[in-house]
Amino acid sequence: MVFESVVVDVLNRFLGDYVVNLDTSQLKLGIWGGDAVLRNLEIKENALSQLDIPFKVRAGHIGRLELKIPWKNLYTQSVEATLDGVYLLIVPTASIKYDAEKEEKQLQEARQRELQRIEETKQKAAEQENPALEKQDTFVEKLVTQVIKNLQVKISNIHIRYEDDVTNPKCPLSFGMSLQNLSLQTADENWKPCLLNEKAKLFFKLVQLDNLFAYWNVNSILYSNHMPDEALRCLQNSMDIYSSTPMKHDFIFRPITANAKLSMNPRSDVNFSSPKVDLVVNLREVAVELNRPQYISILELLGSVDMMSRNLPYRKYRPQFHVHTNAYIWWQYVIMGIMEVDVKPRLHMWSWQRIHRHRQTVKCYRALYKSKITNKKPTEKLLREVEETERTLDIFNITLARQQAEMEASKAGLRIFRPGVKVEEESQGWLGWMWSGWSGDDGAKSKEVKTGAFGELMTPAEKAKLYTAIGYSEVAVNHNLPKNFEDIKIHFHMKRMSFSMKDNKDQNEILKVTVEDLKSMLTQRPGAQAIKLSAQLSLFEVKGLANNRPAPTLLSSRKAATVTGTPLLDILFETNPLDESADQRLHVESQPLEIIYDAVTVNSMSAFFLPPDDLQLDELTNATLMKLEQFRDRTSTGLMYVIETQKVLDLNVNLMASYVIVPQTGFYDSTQNLMLLDLGHFKVSSLSRKGLPQLSVGSRTIQDIMSQAYDSFNIKLSSLQFLYSKPDGDWRKARKLKQSALHILEPVDVKVVFSRAMVVTDSRMPK
What we know:
This protein has helices at residues 3-16, 24-33, 100-127, 133-149, 228-238, 292-311, 327-349, 352-373, 380-390, 395-411, 429-438, 454-457, 460-470, 599-609, 618-644, 702-707, 731-734, and strands spanning 35-42, 55-68, 79-92, 151-164, 173-187, 203-218, 251-264, 277-291, 421-422, 449-450, 488-502, 509-525, 530-543, 553-556, 569-575, 584-590, 594-596, 649-655, 659-663, 674-678, 681-686, 710-725, 743-757. It is α+β, with helices and mostly antiparallel strands. The longest helix has 28 residues, at 100-127. It starts with a helix and ends in a 10-residue tail after the last strand. This is Chorein N-terminal domain-containing protein.
């Protein structure tokens, strides 16, 4: 079978970037034997280099990685994957002693990964022109479905932790995330675990997540001060928060337990009775917590990461002495760092000698790379020369030289041999080779395929067996799916979520926000290129600071509710709805809220978010503003696209009247004078075009036609009012009246009709 080679290749590529001294020969033997077990794997120090962050791995360990693959009964028995005991301790790069040889090796590894990524991107771009791409995608989808159908997964005991004594040496911090269990197992239609039933039209999977939590410790104990083995033992012990002697963590969110039910229809291309993917996710409770020391620590780290990134180029010159008694050495470090990193490279960059040397290097590399890609088996000497030349060039010049070498080879009519590609014509791809080769076309057999792919080693009998197992046919499938067929359906239900803020973890909550019974559903109908997203929220409540009194309710949907059993918030967004009355539909409905001003809570919130005087937030603020600018630009571009493509929008917004209570002394009770602002009932709706008369050339004037070339919306605000009430006043009754002694501003109604031109190029039509 060919699958063994594919599995070995995938594992080697994935694990090779992250694991030290991976024994590929042992892995290959285990895979071919049907049971591969890797134990006590060490994670590389530079495993995080692709994330472009100034962090490194101080200690990393994978306890056990096991794959059980029944090669003899691959289509009927389960494939079992187990990952247990992943412990990762991350520290700032600045806290690891500089080692020139190790740093150079890690730099070259990172460069090679980036170059490989660029080559893969180029290859994918070339494959976009492949006429068999749609067929290939269908085959891959079927194969993935079959893999999931027979897959059992168990992931357990994951703990990733970051420690930092560089940001604030007087107050070290640590934060991390831990997972006790994540499993995927086969079930029957009643969602009870069972063995796979091959005759069933649908298959079912149970997903279980246990004890996922995150923490942020301030003034923390640092495991990174220990030797790596001892640090890993500390990591392992600290994740068991339910042990008899649990480690204390300041949680960001408390342990989460969730489950999901997945049903899949492997024949959704011909059987439309069930969605291809139907996923139901149930989340019991999420409790998010934040105290002021954590907030300050987060701000300090955000500012520090920027400084760490700036410092990386100067790291090799940094002295290993304290500043206080070694001022001369540190001044030497400053001078040398600026000269070597900033000044000298700029001076040398524009010298003729340097330019001449660089051009010669690029030409040499181009010639070497051309020789490499036009030789089926390049010599060791050639590969070594290519690698040595790459060390002196940056990624941009390497990519440019490679592109030039490929163009020269193509113009010369030379055959190009790429890593993982066999024979001549690139655009064909491995799947195209399978179709032409197995269909008996001898002329197509000389075309290239990707090595390690299924078609290269499969016999016709194996191919037939695979196609039968995954339900795939080489005969063209009708992709004109019914417009009402829901291909993907995802349900999400969260029973309760809370967010609380405290001055200190042992003090009362300044603010607690509670959300209950959040439901959402996402469906996709590929036959109409449509998606539908709906969300409902039943309860929203905010409580303030309990300062020698019960915690006041600042915002509540319960007290203001007018209709029982109706969701507090109901949102529907849909593209290409089935009734075809619009291109896009947005409906929003909300029930009223009671909002009460509380002076103690507001003042405490202001003090909570006030940054310390010694914290510089200029860079952080600028970065945030830049992100907001990018978001605004993207939003504006999206709105312009909708306008320019003449999308018909069915808009219906209905926000029931909420009101704000401001007590005279800042504390609300029945003895207080108060002001009440009723925000009014706000409605926005699009005007239907169904009632407009049909237009025909010659029967209407140009003015009639232009008057109908608008999308119109009704905007209505009713019963906006302002009241003042003394303790004996009945403001609840007065809110419902048109006039009363409590009114400062009697109810006001405002109605606006807004029209947007469909044609923006005609100067006679206002936009």
